Each structure stands twice: as structure tokens, then as C-alpha cells.
## 1
Amino acid sequence: KETLDKGLEKSKSGIFEKISRAVVGKSSVDEEVLDELEEILISSDVGVDTTIKIIRRIEKRVAEDKYTSVEELDTILREETAALLEENNSQDVQNSFETDNLPKPYVLMVVGVNGVGKTTTIGKLAHNFQKNGKKVVLGAADTFRAAAVDQLKLWGERVGVDVIDHGMNTDPSSVAYDAVKVGVEKNADVIIIDTAGRLHTKVNLMKELGKIKRVMQKVLPEAPHEVMLVLDGSTGQNATIQAREFTKVTEINSLAITKLDGTAKGGVVIGISDEFKIPVKYIGIGEKMEDLQVFNKIEFVDSLFK
Ligand code: GDP
């Protein structure tokens, strides 16, 4: 929680300052305060639709309470936002670094456009699973981006897990096939497949991801168990747009939102979590191995709006 507070410092100081300014000279939460709050949430990348839902909830509560002092505003904001996310995210996937309740091997396919932190997130995941005593195999199937394979191999060495690669410009589905095969042979707990994310060629990407899935299913018919989309939180609304585009290309089961440290756009996690009904599983709050956290709605909202 402390690391999370620190990671979200930029986002929350912005929001906090704006709210403090909005309530100066006010004693109770009135329409004017709520109008300002609405603007603050939208400018904090929470997203228009989600902001409106939050404001409606607060309005209702304020109306029921008859008198709400401005001192209570941040508590109410936290509670209503958390309640909204809770309500809309019933189909939670297991979000932890444990695999005990998952099929073995568990095949996780990771998608996302270049630069969002996909490789780094895979490295961090490998580290966390490994730390919990799980055996991990990585597949370097992002064979298009220069250095992607090398970067994943570097993470593999750093963390101490096997990386299956065929070099650059090779067939990604053949890498995925081998990674799943080796994972099964070595009795791995988790197999994580890195894939290329060239969203500008949507039809090709759709075909390519489809092929990767079909080919790995020759080894393990139920694979992949999960497709995770990685989004760069520091791009704010762009992350939302990418989520919208990717969900058209392939089924997405979970999200990882990176680079929430050093950005004031942390509010985007709330909007994305509300809009897509796809559980946010992990958040990235730094470049190091340890800087990946399991996403907890209540803690996140608590850190952001405090
Ligand atoms: P990919 O192209 O999607 O595989 O992206 P990379 O994993 O290579 O990451 C791109 C850059 O973002 C690298 O410099 C990473 O160190 C950095 N990065 C990834 N995740 C985070 C994060 O949570 N916080 C910060 N500050 N940087 C990150």
C-alpha cells in the first residue's frame, strides 16, 4: 500500500489540489461543488461516462443525507467510486501471483502495442511467479520488433527462467508452439507468450493472434487460458482507445496497466476498469522487477483520492 501511495503520488496530488481549490470557502457539498468535481474527474482521465456515473452516485447520496459537509467529500468520492467498480466487475479473474487454483500449465498470452511495457510486465510477472516457487517458461513470439526477443531473453536471464526463442523475423506461432511444448515437458506452472502488437494492421494482427492460438492448441487444446492486454496508463485516454481497438481484434480476459508512477493520469484505471468490464489484474508503478502490483480496487481508489 505504501509503494502504491508513492507510485500514484503525481496523480493524487493533482486531484487533491484541485478538489481542495474547488471547496475553498464552501461548507457543504452543493451543485457547484459537484460540477467542479465532475470537471476534476474528467480532467484526471477518469473518462466522461464513468465520471457521470460517479457524480450521479454522489448526488444521490448527498440528497439522501440532506447536509453533506465538504470535509466528507473525499470519503464519499472514494466510497462511491469503489462501489461502482465493485458493482461492474463481478467476473473477477484470480489476480495474484499464485497459480495454485489454475490449470497446469497455465498459458498466458500477452498482447499490446509496442512501447506500452509489455516485455517489462512479462519479466516482472515471471519474477513474481518464480518468487512464489512456480516454474515459468517464456515464449519470445514478438519476432517483429527489433530487440524484443533480446529484451525478453535478458529478462529471462535476470529472473532465471527459460526463454524459448527462434530469433527475429521468425514465425511467432512456431515460437508459441515450442514454448508450450517445452512448458508441458518441463512441467511448468506458467507459460507466458509475448506477442507482437502492430495495431495499425488490424486484420493482420487478428489473423496472427488467431494463428498463434490455433498452433499452440495443437500441443494444449485449452491454451491460451488467458489473453492479457497491456496498456500504458501514462497515455491516459489513448490507453482507453487501445483497449477498445484490441477488444475488437481478439478476446481479452484481463488487463495490466503500466507506468502509473510519474504520471498524473492514474484516473484512467478507474475509467477502463468501469468501461470494459475486463478485470484489471496488475498495475505497473516503476521499471524494476518489484514494481508490479496486484490490482486492488479499494486500495487503488483509496490511494488515488486521498
Ligand atoms: P514493450 O515494447 O511494450 O515491450 O515495452 P517495454 O517493456 O520495452 O517497455 C518500454 C519502456 O517502458 C521501458 O523503458 C520500460 O522500462 C518502461 N516501463 C515499463 N513498465 C513501466 C512502469 O510501470 N513504470 C515505468 N516508469 N516505466 C515502465
Note: The CA atoms of residues 111 and 229 lie 5 Å apart.
## 2
Amino acid sequence: MPTFLLAVGSNLGDSRRTIDQSLSAIDQWENTQVVARSSLHRTRALGGPQGQGEFLNGAVVVQTNRTPLELLHALQEIEIALGRKREERWSARTIDLDILLAGDQKLLPGESVIETDCLTIPHPRMSYRPFVLGPAVEIAGNWSHPLLHATLDTLWQQLREGDESLLLYGGSAEDRKWHVDQLTAHFPTLRILGPATVARESPSPQLAIQLRQQGEGPISGLPTLTLPASGRRSGLPELLAAIEGVWPDLGRQVSTE
Ligand code: A4P
Ligand code: MG
């Protein structure tokens, strides 16, 4: 039966109880079972409105005969039943249930990658978020990220121990320069690779940022953030939040609000 890795998060109300209720609700679906459950990690809210409470974050493995889209819609029904209100992006929430990976080893590699208007698997922000990978490796460390070609264990290790630098590649030279200027203004001590790389044209149409980079060219297996191709500057808050998550001690110098 198809297997999925999910992320659970909550920072409003009785988070532990709400998470338990959400997992019991999943377990009660026909032909569905929660087969593994990580511990719950207390984490600082990253991105979104200021002043939010801390999150409880966890991960679970679910076996189900639902399609990925059916699973997404069923998870959204549980979120609504448990009081989730969709307000400002990344605002405090009673429960957030995200699909991280489709892990059935019998699937062809391409089938574990989904890109539709309402569903993207692997979850696009999973590789560089400590609050996602930390719980996930407890139960799925040997799962493969089909786009980054690394196990979650490897990504988690890179996220914690890789070099204190990042690499921009892809997009246009102008795009990369704008982002380098923004990053330098916000995080003056961050090591950005490198003027030569930034000026070089790249075949990738979308600007991507490899965190914890140690070389001058993109390599597989590193936490990677890909910025949206349209309205490229709209990805800046996500990039800044990602850097704060990976290097909490860098300190942000100027406000973006
Ligand atoms: N969507 C696309 N792909 C997926 C997927 N793989 N799984 C769409 C789930 N949903 C997916 O999600 C917005 C839309 O994403 C949905 O309509 C769905 O069709 P949402 O749950 O309505 O809103 P959201 O969660 O606020 O948006 P988003 O962008 O998914 O937020 P994230 O990335 O989940 O980040 N800090 C800590 N410490 N812990 C957290 O858990 N979470 C967030 C939210 C920010 N900061 C956090 C935490
Ligand atoms: Mg969500």
C-alpha cells in the first residue's frame, strides 16, 4: 500500500492534544494506518507574523490506499474540523498537516514527484527546515528525497554540520545580484559563494539557493531552496526565514516589514 511521510505542526491551543486528535482521525479512515510517529519537538516559529507562540512539530508515516490528492483533501478536512483558520500566510495555527514525501518503494522515481496547483511533493520547504527534518529523521531517516538525491539522514546532517555558507545558482545574473545584495544587507556576516558564481550564467531558469554549501558549484544532497520563477522577489521572506532557521545566531540586521 502507498506510504507517505507527513509533517504535523501546531502553535495554537492545546497543541499536544490537537496533534493526537488529528492522528487518531487519520487512523480511523478506511484502509489507512499511522505506522510510525516521531516525538514532538518544541520549536521557535519561523517566518510569518511576529509574536507567535512556539510550535510543537512532529512527523508520521501513514499507509493508505488514497491517492496523494485524496490524502491532501482528507488532511485539510481534519485541519478544518480541528479549528484551523486560514488567515495570513504562516500565521499561528491549531494544526497544520503537510505531505512531505511519497515513499512507496515500488513507485517509479518519477511517481514520487508531484507538481500540481494545489499539491507539491516532495514538500518544497522540507530540506532546509530543522523543525521538519529533526522529527522526520526519527522515523524516516533512510527515505530518499527524489529531487535532491539524498536520504533525510544526509540532509539533516548537512543542515546541522555543513559549511557556514550558501551558493546561489540559476535564474538571471541580475536576479542573483539582487538577492546577494539583499542577503548581504540582512546578514552581513553570511558567507555567500561567490562573486564568480553569481556572475556566471546558468542553465537553470529558477534561482536556487544551496544552504551549507562548501564548493563553487551546485552539488547534490544539500538542503536547497528554489525561488518562484514568477515574481522572483516574492520569495525573499521565505529565503530570509530559511537562513534564520539554519543559522539562528546570525541575527537579522534590517527589517523587511
Ligand atoms: N500544498 C502544496 N503542496 C502541499 C503539500 N505537500 N502538503 C498547498 C500540504 N499542502 C500542500 O497550505 C497552503 C497550500 O499548500 C494548501 O492550500 C495546499 O494546497 P496551508 O496549510 O493552507 O497554509 P500554510 O501551512 O500556512 O502554508 P505553507 O506555505 O504550506 O506553510 P508551511 O510551509 O507549512 O509553513 N515554524 C515552526 N517552528 N514550525 C512550523 O510548523 N510552519 C510554518 C508554515 C511556518 N513556520 C513554522 C511552521
Ligand atoms: Mg500546510
Note: The helical segments are 15-27, 68-81, 130-140, 152-161, 173-186, 195-199, 236-246.
